[in-house]
Design a protein that fits this description.
By secondary structure, the chain is of the alpha+beta class. It is built from 13 helices and 28 strands. Among the domains are: 81 residues, no CATH class; 106 residues, PDZ domain (Pdz3 Domain), CATH 2.30.42; 182 residues, 2-enoyl-CoA Hydratase, Chain A, domain 1. The radius of gyration is 32 Å and the shape is globular.
Length: 550
Amino acid sequence: MQFSIKLPVGDWGRIVLWVRMLLIVSLVKAQQTPRIIKATSAIVDIKDGYVIQKGIWNLTPEAKPDVYHALSPALEREITFYTNIDSISFQAKPSQHYDFIVVLNGKDSCYTRIAMPAESAATTPDMISAERLAMDFVVFRKSLENEHAGLYRYKSKKVVDRLLDDCLLSINKPMTRLEFGKIIMQVISFIQDGHTTGNISSLLLKNYQAQGKLFPLYLYFTADRAFVRCNYANIFSTGTEVLSINNQSIAQITQQLFKYLPSDGSITTKKIHTLNNGAFAFLYRWVMGNDSLFLVKYKDGQGRIKTETIAAIPANQIDCETKNLPTAPRDLYVQYLPKDAAIITIKTFDEGRLQRAELSFKEFVQTTFAELNAKKISRLIIDLRGNGGGFNAYSPLLYSYLADKPFRYFASEKSTSKVFTVEDNYLLGLQQPQTTNFKGTVLFLIDGLTFSTAADFCAIAKSNRRGKFIGEETAGGYYGNTSGQTVRIELPHTKLIMTIPRFNYGLAVRKSRYADRGVIPEHEVLPSIRELLEAQDVQLHYALQLMDKI
């Protein structure tokens, strides 16, 4: 049975109006009823988009409302308040505000409001908001975690995660991209991977060359000491030892700067070379601050301790003409010496560089070792100083001319998504010696610029006890490196460009005393400041003397 009720047209209009009014009242009532969370501590953490602010907010029942002004810029994002027992989140939009109540200790109502900015409040065009910087850092972190196969080679995931968390927490104010670059470089230095790089150093040089003043002395660092390489203002003569700058010892200063320089493991030789190659003044300004005067403590020619205050100067006025060691005429070069000896210099394993120089590595080693045998050479020096690496296959190929039995090269290779086998890379298999292999005595010259594939070669030769090493610890790790194919990312707001290696290589080497060091020479030979100024090749001279005793 159906019933129908007929109402006059005017009554229908009144009912529709009444229903609409009820809906509006309900909506207004819903909007006016703030959400409620609880707390037993007045301390609150806030996550403002990507920016995490620990303990930044104190609950204040007296304020009605207590307003949290969200960070600039005015981007839509999630904002979360965390009490010690509860939390509340809002998808916040520009120019809006969001009210809620925190009940403290079950009795005090803390009326709280999130107020979003209407537009960006950056103070200068050079400053980037904390929100955008945090977004960039999250992109950088995710790229490391997703792509960097050796992220946890030297530090555990727990330790690396803690550092990354702390770095994100430290982003709580606007910065320039060079200030933000300090955070990025601290991470790269901390994970101890020399193949993870970026464009920060070039930006630093470009910025300070164009503007600003720098520490005026060109220094040479060796161990924890520093010496003046060029005369300055008739105050510091060449060779003067600098003991401290602005009451910080040279050891303290270098340790601070090392935190922003990449290298494999705990190796410092590459970092020292970076300082010695003209980067010190730029790094000192970047890390230590924009001082216009420097109090320098030094030791004069008579050994007396003195102090002098000197002024910063423009970067283009820091000029130092120094003598350089004589170099081989080509990247691949063999020199024959009296008494059945020879020196092979290999400046690079970089295939592209060799091709541009119209050199073939395979032909060079094949021809050279055939000549060594034909000339009955019995003593050989292989000079790998300054060799920054290159094509992986050239290292085991070179060692195959020194080996007298089959040998292993790579023990493992992996990315974040795959473990490779010998079917993927033949260098994981057993390598064979050459029929024209060299059977005589070998000495190796190495330094803090011997890196990547060149350092891998040294590790294999060291592990197989093929010869003695002279010079400085290699820049590359003894157990292998993370290199090969790379991923290049540009951080969206700072436009910093980072290069992340994707393949983790483990070398087939004997166990070493140190897990985080390079190839350490049996004969450590470092030039003194006098030998450096006179361009004496003390490492080669030492090798020749040692070879004469063989």
